[in-house]
Structure formats: structure tokens, C-alpha cells
Write a structure and sequence with these properties.
single chain, mainly alpha
Length: 138
């Protein structure tokens, strides 16, 4: 049984919510700006239509193939370390995307973008783990 003193403070809940919102907004912006800027990106990097489509869908690969692994890591280590590592991987992918000068690096950088969402949904599915969003909305 939890008491009122066991719950996080209001400031901590707001801070968690802001960090979590930014952790999702930044990767989504980095991924979905490709659609309206498609013709400029194709011309700038000299991509074919197939290459552009594969770059646009690259962030979906980890969601499909790594969600089970992320869930197992959350069960073993808890959601905080897994979410922390996933946010770090996403930041590295976003920075690499800015400096990408061709198809290969752009593809690899975009594969790293969905990790916060991947680890969050894996942790939210756990029976004994509270997600940060539910923690921030308490």
C-alpha cells in the first residue's frame, strides 16, 4: 500500500512529463520532416525513389524487430535504465542524421530514432513496472 508521501512531488511529475514529451517530439519531428521535404532531400542527397522510401520507413524496423528484446531488457533491468539508454541512442541517431552526407549514414541514423517509444511501450506492458507517463500524470 502506498501512502501520499511515497508519491513523487508535483514538480518531479511535471519534469518527467516535459522530458518524456521532448523525448518523443524530437525523434518524430526528425522522422516526419522527410515527407514534406521529400523532393529537396532526394535532390540534395541524390537518392532514388526506393532509397528515399527505405529511409522514410527505417525507423519502423526497430519497432518490429526489437520490441520483444526491449521488453525482456525492461523485465530484467527495469524501465529506467532501458529508457535512459534508448533516449541516448535516439540522441546519437538525431545528431548523426544532421551530419549524414549520404544514403548509408542517413539510413543508420534513422534506425536509431524510435528507441524511446520502443522501450516505453515495452515497459508500460510490464505488470510490475509503472511507466513514466502514468507516473507524471499521478
Amino acid at each position: 500500500m502506498t501512502t501520499l508521501n511515497d508519491s513523487p512531488s508535483r514538480a518531479r511529475r511535471i519534469l518527467c512529463f516535459i522530458v518524456f514529451a521532448l523525448a518523443y517530439a524530437a525523434p518524430n519531428y526528425a522522422q516526419y520532416q522527410f515527407s514534406p521535404l521529400g523532393t529537396q532531400i532526394i535532390e540534395t542527397y541524390g537518392l532514388s525513389g526506393v532509397q528515399f522510401n527505405s529511409i522514410f520507413t527505417a525507423p519502423m524496423l526497430p519497432a518490429v524487430f526489437l520490441s520483444l528484446i526491449s521488453g525482456l531488457l525492461v523485465d530484467r533491468y527495469g524501465y529506467k535504465p532501458v529508457l535512459g539508454v534508448s533516449i541516448l541512442l535516439t540522441a546519437l541517431g538525431a545528431v548523426a542524421r544532421v551530419f549524414a552526407n549520404g544514403y548509408g549514414l542517413m539510413y543508420v541514423a534513422l534506425i536509431f530514432l524510435p528507441y524511446p517509444a520502443l522501450s516505453f511501450f515495452a515497459s508500460a506492458a510490464g505488470k510490475s513496472h509503472s511507466s513514466l507517463v502514468s507516473l507524471s500524470l499521478m
